[in-house]
Amino acid sequence: MPNNGIKLNDYAYVNNFRDSDHPSLLIFPAGQGRTFKTDIKNCIKLLQENIPQILEREPFLSERKSLAKDYNKQQQTLLANFEKKLKKDNLTLGQIKTEEVTRPEIFAVINNQPVYIQQLTELVQKKRIK
Predict the structure, then answer these.
(1) Dist. CA 126–CA 35, nearest whole Å
(2) pTM recorded for the entire structure
(3) How do strand 91-98 and strand 101-110 relate by DSSP bridges?
(4) How far apart are CA 91 and CA 106, in angstroms?
(5) What ranges do the domains of the chain cover?
(6) What mean pLDDT do residues 22-38 have?
(7) CA distance 60 to 25
(8) Closest Cα to residue 16, out of 29, 26, 6, 28?
(9) How far is residue 25's CA from residue 12's CA, in Å, rounded to a whole number?
(10) 43-77 core/surface letters (b: 16 or more CB in 10 A; e: else)
């Protein structure tokens, strides 16, 4: 069937990173849109396979270790400052293990012993504390 001189095109909308609400239109000669789609799939597959391997090599590995070290240092400083504030009010920070997860918990300090906050009402009722 002749196309009577009409030029056919393939159209593809792709993400517009500057304005995600308005995708960009790509126009290809007829049949090239499918080639573009295949090439993009192959490129994505290549990146998915290679990026994790690259990130496990130097200098990325050193940078990741450095970031983790800095994060841990900041976390320890924050926790130390928080514990100082708790100590002023006879409270302390402890760790509770529930199933496989360890989570922080605030305890009251009574007679130099950590006590669950939930137990305070009971201790008041038993007249062990005021």
Answers:
(1) 79
(2) 0.49
(3) antiparallel
(4) 7
(5) 9-55, 89-130
(6) 96
(7) 36
(8) 26
(9) 6
(10) eeeeeeeeeeeeeeeeeeeeeeeeeeeeeeeeeee
Kindly report the CA angle at 103 between 100 and 108, in degrees rounded to 5?
135
Burial of 119 (0-12, 13-18, 19+ CB in 10 A): middle
Q: Give the confidence band of 122 by pLDDT, cuts at 50, 70, 90.
A: confident
- Which ranges constitute the DSSP H helices of the chain? 32-55, 60-88, 120-125
- DSSP secondary structure letter of residue 22: S
CB 34 within 8 Å of CB 10: yes
Give me the residue label for tokens 């030029």. 7
Q: How far is C-alpha 87 from the geometric centre of its chain's CA atoms?
A: 32
53 within 8 A of 67, measured Cβ to Cβ: no
